[in-house]
Structure formats: C-alpha cells, structure tokens
Amino acid sequence: MNKITAAITAVGGYVPEDVLTNKMLEEMVETNDEWITTRTGIKERRILKDPNKGTSYLGIQAAKDLINKTGLDPKEIDMVILASATPDMPVAATGVHVASEIGAINAFSYDLQAACSGFLYAMSTGAAYIESGRYKKVLVIGADKMSSIIDYTDRTTCIIFGDGAGAVLMEPNEEGYGLQDEILRSDSIGRDSLRIEAGGSLLPPSEETIAKKLHYVKQDGKTVFKYAVSNMSGVSAQIMERNNLTNEDVDWLIAHQANKRIIGATASRMGVEDEKVLMNIERYGNTTSATLPLLLSDYEKKFKKGDNLIFASFGGGFTWGATYLKWAYNS
C-alpha cells in the first residue's frame, strides 16, 4: 500500500470590494504613496466596511468560491480548520459558524491562532488528519478582518494590513503529491514586538484599555523586520537543503505577504528567480492568515501537476515556518 500524503485539490479566495489606497491614507495619517511603496511594496488594500460582517463572512465567501468552482458537496467535508487572528468573538469558535453556513453539516470545526503563520500551521494540522487515514476531506481556511484591530491614526500599522480570506481543500493522495516536508518554529522572544495588549485574560477590557487604544495592533517594525528576514529565509533555505532541492527544482515560492523586502530577502537566500516569486501584496497588503491561500487562489492557473511549491511565513509570537508541497493537479 502506497503512503498517504495530503494534497491540495481545490482552492478559493475572497477579498472585499472596498479599496483603501495609499493616496487615501495620505489624507488620514502623515505618510505618502512613495514612502509606503518603497518600504512595503503595498499600493492598496481591501477593507470589509460593513460593521455587521466579521471574519466569518470572509471565510464563508472564500469557502463558497471553492465549492462553486469544484461542485464539491459540503456534506462530504469531514472537518473545517479556520486560521485567524481576528475571530468574530472570543468565545464561540468562528470556524464552527463558517462550517454551518456553508452546509458542512457533517464536519467538526475549530479555530487556530498563530498570527501570520496561522494558515501554514493549519495546513500542517489538516495534513496530519488526512495522513492518519481517519478523514478524507479537510477544508483549511485563512481569514482575517484586520481592519477591525487597526488604529487608523497609527501610521506604523495602518499602511500594512488589509482584509481577505482564502481556502484550500486537502485530500488523500497515493501518487506522491501533496505535502512532502515542513519546518515549523516559534519563539516568545517576539511577544512584545507585535501584539494586541488588551482584551485577553491578562488585561481584560476596561474603560482604561479602550481609552489607551490597547485593543489595536502595536508593532516594533524594526525588530519584526529583522527577525522575519532571518527566520523566514532561514527555514526556507533549510527545507530546500533537507529535501535536496536546488533553485532550479523550486517552481514557485508562496511567501507570506507582509513586506516586499522580506519576500525578496527570502527568495535571494533560496536562490529563486523573481519570476518564481508570487506576489499580490501590492493589491491586498498583509491579510495575515489569508495571504498564503489568496496567493494560491490568484495564481492557481499557473500551477501544473508535480510543481514544487515552497510556502514560507512569519508572524507575531514569534511564529514562522516553511513547507514543501508537490502540486497535485493541472488547473
């Protein structure tokens, strides 16, 4: 009997209609288009403006996109993992609501939080369920409404983040395609460098926390940049070496869309040519858990069966990792 691997067999994506451009941000904070573009590579980002819609809405739309494209019967889905740093609410898992709303009535579901590495961690978890032989169809979703936790008077964060969602279906494969290897890491050295200080058990909500804007993302940009470049590029090069992959063997780099310079440094460390580096950061900014599946959704037509994909991410915590996956179908 051949070894069971977990392959991606379908993808979907969704971004809201409303666009927040660099020019619009110039009217909101002291910044300019040239500064943002030069340092981040971002030109615009999508914002879910409806106050009655949260991360679950984004995840539902991405899942529906996948279902509509493939004709998948939601009742066949065994489980749903939602990677998100912005759940609808602290209690009552957002993934459960997403599963119910898409008609995945036979699935169990839960949320996974690892900041910007959430989707990579969730994909690893989904693969483990598939490889166990106990589940056949696992839907992994990355979704974040980052605009709900951003202070739009803070120019260090408001220029970076956007809203969006992406989804992949993982199924068993016995042909050798799918997830081949992974290196996942974490270190709390970055606990204070990228965080939301209030709202948890350590510092519950109060009039004081609201007045001090402690429910918004705060970031020490220089520290995060330094660790992101070192760690994300390091594990990406390491996974190539461990699997005897040369730069010629790598067909596509699927890197977290946080900063164009970080992506460039990772590609350079791997020796991967620019044309193999997929990017949509210019249009979406950093959508946190959604960046990796949104890349797959945007560039799905480029992938061929047997292509070697290297995923790489870095997020708050710190969390980071790299995954080597063989694409399982011709799009």
Secondary structure: elements and pairs:
Elements lengths: L4 E10 L3 E4 H5 L6 H8 L3 E4 L7 H16 L8 E5 L10 H8 L6 E5 L5 H14 L6 E8 L17 E11 L4 E9 L7 E2 L11 H5 L6 E2 L1 H22 L9 E4 L4 H11 L10 H4 L6 H9 L8 E8 L3 E8 L5
Parallel strand pairs: 4-5, 4-6, 11-12
Antiparallel strand pairs: 1-7, 2-3, 6-7, 8-13, 9-10, 12-13
Helix pairs in contact: 3-4, 7-8
Structural overview:
The chain is an alpha/beta fold and 331 residues long. It has helices spanning 22-26, 33-40, 55-70, 94-101, 118-131, 207-211, 221-242, 260-270, 281-284, 291-299, and strands at 5-14, 18-21, 44-47, 79-83, 108-112, 138-145, 163-173, 178-186, 194-195, 218-219, 252-255, 308-315, 319-326. Helix 3 (55-70) runs parallel beside helix 4 (94-101) and helix 7 (221-242) runs parallel beside helix 8. Strand 12 (308-315) and strand 13 form a beta hairpin. 31% of the residues lie in helices and 24% in strands. It has a 5-stranded mixed sheet with strand order 1-7-6-4-5, sandwiched between helices. Strands 8-13-12-11 form a 4-stranded mixed sheet, with helices on both faces. The model has no long low-confidence stretch (mean pLDDT 97).
Mean pLDDT: 97
* Beta content: 15-25%
Low-confidence stretches: none
Q: How far is it from the N-terminal to the C-terminal residue, by CA?
A: 28 Å
Shape: globular
Question: Which percent range fits the helix content?
Answer: 25-40%
Largest sheet: 5 strands, mixed
How many helices does DSSP assign? 10
Taken in chain order, the helices and strands follow as EEHHEHEHEHEEEEHEHEHHHEE
Number of beta strands: 13
* Sequence of strands across the biggest β-sheet: 1-7-6-4-5
Q: Give the helix/strand class.
A: alpha/beta
**Alpha carbon gyration radius:** 19 Å
